[in-house]
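Review session, final week

We close the course with one last complete record, chosen because it touches almost every idea we covered. It is Response regulator transcription factor, a protein from Paraburkholderia antibiotica with 207 residues. Go through it on your own first, then we will talk.
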Amino acid sequence: MNETATRVFVVDDDESVRGALARLLRVSGYQVECFETPQAFLERADLTGTPACLLLDLQMPGMSGLEVQRKLDQLLPIVFLTGHGDVSSSVDAMKGGALDFLPKPPSESQLLEAVDRALKRACEESRRRRERAEIEERMTHLTRREREVMELVVTGRLNKQVASDLGAAEKTIKIHRARVMEKMKARSIVELARLMRKAGIRAADEE
């Protein structure tokens, strides 16, 4: 994994903790950005661009780590750090999508392993978002009729069946189908169906 293409955000109200975490992470090759308060993080952190994860203190004045987690709504993989952990908090954090829940102070190996897992998750999610955006961009070139044909052919219907469903000539459906395959850059109906699933588009028989 290429740490130079990723970032780690650290949010903790304890300056000594922030400093220790930042030093360890930077020495280990990570790009680090530290914030003293959740408000500062939410206002100033650039959450676009390179994949990132968040090391987040659970208990902080003004806004708890769980509140920050809810505001982010799984935008970033989160590793919680706490000196005041309890079972209910860890359960809530995990239900909210937290990747890890570590007691303070975590060991160096424990922390670095958690960050590595979180950044791998972030990179995978970033890849999926880019792939979906590319598929959606291809779909903008489809006409309304081509979109209808696409949603039907991926169900396994023959051209004549699609023609019957849409009240069109089979010859016309063949033309639409060829244009769909070309615009979506799909080499087979199986690949076309996979692209649709990645874009969150349901086939006609899944409505």
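Two points worth writing down before the exam:
The chain has two domains: 3-129, 141-206.
Residues 12 and 57 are 5 Å apart (CA to CA).
Good luck, everyone.
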